[in-house]
Write the C-alpha cells for this entry.
Amino acid sequence: MEVPHGAAQLSATAHPLRAALPLFLLAGLCLSSLDATAKYLVRDHPLLLVVWARYVGQMAVVTPFAWHRAGPGFWRTRRLRLQLGRSALLLMATIAFFGALRYLPLAEGSAVSFLAPIVAVALSWPILRERATRARITAAVVCFTGILVIVRPGSAVLHPAVLLLLVTAVTNGLYSLYTRKLRDDSPYATLFYSALVGAVGLTIAVPFLLEATTLTLHDGALLLLTGVLAGLGHGLLTAAYSRAPATLLAPFTYLQMVWATLFGYVIFGQHPDRWSALGMAAIIASGVVLALWERRRLP
C-alpha cells in the first residue's frame, strides 16, 4: 500500500469527481495488484530484487508521462534535497512493506500499514506547523484501536514482521508530510523523483541479487508486471489528482483494503477472521469519516 503523490495542487475540471474517480479507482486496483504480485514473488526471490523491479518499472512508465505533460524540463525542482529525501522514505517504506508481506496475510498487512495517517497527524505540528484538529485526533484514535484489534494476541498478524509494518507506517507518514512541503514544485517533477532513489540505488546491487536466485520466464514476467503496475498506479494517481482535489478522492483510498482482502483469499487462501474484519472496518470508517469532514471544512 502506498500513499498518493503530490499532485493535489493541480486545478480541477467542471465535474471533478466524475472525471477523476475512474482513474483513482483503477490506480488503487493497480497498487493492490502490485502488493499481491510482490507478496507472491518475495516468498522465493530476494526482497531487494522485487523492490528493484518495482522502481525501475515505475521510472520507465512515469518518465515519458511526465515528459509528455510537462515538457523536457519536467525534472527541474527547487528543492532537490527534499525530493531525494522523500524518495528515500518511499523506498524504505516499500522494502519494509514487501518484507512484511513475506510473512503476513495480505489483507491484515495492508490494513496495519494504514497507520501512516496517525503518524502524519502526530508529526504535522513539528514538521508543518499544522495543529491537528479534534476530528483528526479522533479519527487517529479510532484507526489505532482498529489496528490493535487486528494485531491482538492470537491473530495471524502477531508476528515479529509486524514491526516492519510499523516502519512502513512511519516512513509513509513522513513521505506524505514531505509531499505536502513540495506543493510549490511541479507534480510531474515530484512524480519523477518519487522512484529515482529506488531505481538508481538498487540498480547498483542487481548483479549481486541475480546471483542469489534462479529466475524462470514466469518469474521474469511477474517482475516486469510489478514495475508496470507501479508505474500505472502512480501515473493514474497523478492524473486523478489533476482532475479533482484530494478531499474528494480520499474516502475511496480505503477500497484498496477490499482488493487486498479479495487477492489474499483468491491467490493465497487467506481471509481475515471476525475480529480482524472488525478492526479493518474501524480503520475504513475512521478514514472515510475524516475525509468527509475535511471536505466540509473547505471553502
Observations:
- The two ends are 31 Å apart (CA to CA).
- Residues 16-297 form one domain.
